[in-house]
């Protein structure tokens, strides 16, 4: 009898996990709390509880050539970088092609996942779900957690003294949807990730002025790279990786900085990363340097303090008459349906072997898929994680554990 696997979530990671279960002859049941697939990539007009939320204009930062699953290329007529509606269309085509929808239970929330009494022997899990106000308990041989990490907003208000006095509007970037309603406003965006840059560039076309406050700066790249090719098709090649892995660290750092400053000198724009030695994921925005140059986006250091109507920055400068503050300060994640003894999240880090398996489990029958931020697309990474996990569940790769 095929082993039963519970898959939690039907976004990118959940869909490829269902597919990988089927490839290995396992029997998947996917639980999705909303009414459709897509996870992060399904735009909704309003923020939904327990679901990732994106703004209407979101476009992929990785190209279609690098973002597709290994066994399902994207349609040729799709552009190189996809609007979220196009990417969602791709996920629907993938689900239809491999007949995945029949394994998904929609509008079903996972309440708890706990070990069976004899877990150390059989490695099974009791999964309790709720749908239409009714709870159901079922036993599974393995569990794949595919909930992503863009659900719980992280807003460290304690780091911004005076925010409680601020009379304007403030919210996390998760709440942002469209630029409508921000006409004529003075807006401060706090953060320097992809969302912060996208929102600042989009709002500066409607607002009176947009300020971008960054603690440590970031390398900013264009999606268009050498000779007009998508950036990731140039950087993520075997040859490029071989060269990078062969260079001494100091030389690699120098080469990287030189390459990053080819498009524009980050120092002139106040965007030099504070800890440039860490090769963290860059920001992809084709318009930000131009907007800074035109003055419609002004880069500022981190906010030291808020007053009722203004923001005081670490360099002593003051921004008066602030109407809106948008905190693009990232996300925290948790596993509310799991006991702490299974995965204990500390400092927004989960101790997972190879970013997939909780190492202290007696049996490797629970895997977290997609909880990783690679320098490049998450889709093939999540697929490889799911392929490995399902092989472990099947007993093919037990030696690796």
From TrEMBL:
List the top taxonomic levels of the source. Eukaryota, Metazoa, Chordata, Craniata, Vertebrata
Compartment(s) where it occurs, according to its Swiss-Prot or TrEMBL record: Endoplasmic reticulum membrane
Alphabetical list of Pfam families matching this protein:
FMO-like (PF00743)
Query: Has the keyword Mitochondrion been applied to this entry?
Result: no
As cofactor, the record names: FAD
Would the keyword Transmembrane helix be found if you checked this record's keyword annotation? yes
The family this protein is said to belong to? Belongs to the FMO family.
Which chemical reaction does it catalyze?
Answer: hypotaurine + NADH + O2 + H(+) = taurine + NAD(+) + H2O; N,N-dimethylaniline + NADPH + O2 + H(+) = N,N-dimethylaniline N-oxide + NADP(+) + H2O; hypotaurine + NADPH + O2 + H(+) = taurine + NADP(+) + H2O; trimethylamine + NADPH + O2 = trimethylamine N-oxide + NADP(+) + H2O
| GO CC list | endoplasmic reticulum membrane
What membrane topology does this protein have?
A: Single-pass membrane protein
Q: Which domain of life is it from?
A: Eukaryota
Gene Ontology MF term list: flavin adenine dinucleotide binding; hypotaurine monooxygenase activity; N,N-dimethylaniline monooxygenase activity; NADP binding; trimethylamine monooxygenase activity
Q: What does this protein do?
A: Broad spectrum monooxygenase that catalyzes the oxygenation of a wide variety of nitrogen- and sulfur-containing compounds including xenobiotics. Catalyzes the S-oxygenation of hypotaurine to produce taurine, an organic osmolyte involved in cell volume regulation as well as a variety of cytoprotective and developmental processes.
What is the official name of this protein in its record? Flavin-containing monooxygenase
Q: What is its EC number?
A: 1.-.-.-
Check the record and name the Gene3D superfamilies matching this protein.
FAD/NAD(P)-binding domain
Q: Which organism is it from?
A: Alligator sinensis
Q: What keywords are assigned to this protein?
A: Endoplasmic reticulum, FAD, Flavoprotein, Membrane, Monooxygenase, NADP, Oxidoreductase, Transmembrane, Transmembrane helix
């Amino acid at each position: 009898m095929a082993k039963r696997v519970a898959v939690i979530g039907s976004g990118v990671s959940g869909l490829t996990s269902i597919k990988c279960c089927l490839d290995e002859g396992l029997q998947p049941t996917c639980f999705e709390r909303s009414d459709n697939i897509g996870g992060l990539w399904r735009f909704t007009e309003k923020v939904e509880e327990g679901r990732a939320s994106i703004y209407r204009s979101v476009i992929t930062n990785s190209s279609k050539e690098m973002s597709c699953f290994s066994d399902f290329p994207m349609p040729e007529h799709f552009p190189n970088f996809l609007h979220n509606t196009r990417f969602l269309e791709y996920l629907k085509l993938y689900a239809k092609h491999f007949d995945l929808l029949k394994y998904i239970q929609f509008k079903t929330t996972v309440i708890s996942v706990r070990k069976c009494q004899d877990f150390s022997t059989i490695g099974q899990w009791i999964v309790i779900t709720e749908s239409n106000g009714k709870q159901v308990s079922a036993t599974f041989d393995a569990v794949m957690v595919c909930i992503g990490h863009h659900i719980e907003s992280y807003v460290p208000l304690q780091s911004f003294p005076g925010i409680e006095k601020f009379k304007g509007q403030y919210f996390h970037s998760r709440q942002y949807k469209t630029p409508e309603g921000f006409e004529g406003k003075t807006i401060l965006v706090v953060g320097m990730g992809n969302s912060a840059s996208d929102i600042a560039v989009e709002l500066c076309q409607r607002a009176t002025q947009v300020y971008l406050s960054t603690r440590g700066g970031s390398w900013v790249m264009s999606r268009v790279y050498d000779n007009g090719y998508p950036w990731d098709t140039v950087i993520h090649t075997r040859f490029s990786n071989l060269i990078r892995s062969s260079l001494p660290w100091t030389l690699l750092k120098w080469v990287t900085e030189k390459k990053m400053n080819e498009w524009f000198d980050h120092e002139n724009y106040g965007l030099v990363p504070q800890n440039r030695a860490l090769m963290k994921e860059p920001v992809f925005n084709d318009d930000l340097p131009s907007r800074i140059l035109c003055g419609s986006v002004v880069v500022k250091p981190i906010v030291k303090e808020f007053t009722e109507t203004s923001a005081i920055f670490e360099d002593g400068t003051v921004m008066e008459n602030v109407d809106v503050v948008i905190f693009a300060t990232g996300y925290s994640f948790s596993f509310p349906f799991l006991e702490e003894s299974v995965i204990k999240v500390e400092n927004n880090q989960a101790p997972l072997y190879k970013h997939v398996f909780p190492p202290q489990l007696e049996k490797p029958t629970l895997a977290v898929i997609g909880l990783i931020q690679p320098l490049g697309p998450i889709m093939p990474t999540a697929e490889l994680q799911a392929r490995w996990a399902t092989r472990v569940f099947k007993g093919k790769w037990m030696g690796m554990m």
